[in-house]
Amino acid sequence: MDRAGVGRVCLALPGATLDHPFGDDHDAYKVGGKMFAIMGGMGGLSFKVSDIAFEILTGAGRARPAPYLARAKWVHLDDPADWPDDELAEHLAIAYSIVAAKLTKKARAALGLA
Fold first, then answer.
1. What's the CA gap between 83 and 24, in Å, rounded?
2. Which of the chain's termini has less CB crowding within 10 Å, N or C?
3. How far apart, in whole angstroms, are the C-alpha atoms of residue 12 and residue 31?
4. Is CATH 2.40.50.100 correct for 3-103?
5. pTM above the 0.90 mark?
6. What is the residue extent of each domain of the chain?
7. Spatial separation of the C-alpha atoms in residues 39 and 45, rounded to whole Å
8. 87, 95, 88, 94: which is closest to 44 by C-alpha?
9. What confidence tens digit (pLDDT) does each residue in 16-48 have?
């Protein structure tokens, strides 16, 4: 999946927004102001995963711990085009769900997620 595909998948999720807090070449996808995926300037993709998915994906070598974000259970893909589009789209939707679930009840209601 390329940068445009990641954007289409992420922005199709309810209340998801695109921001550029690290510069114009980094796309940060957020829900309720909290990041769930980042597409870097060199084409790498980082996203939030569950504790179990973190162990499985990094242990199997399918992803590596994301720089600066691994302690929060984020993984990094150097080339997201190496992954099947449907599988990557599912991981991005799960990343969104994990982050959205941690928003306050008021924030989820404001986004129409409650």
1. 25
2. C
3. 12
4. no
5. yes
6. 3-103
7. 5
8. 88
9. 999 999 999 999 999 999 999 999 988 999 999
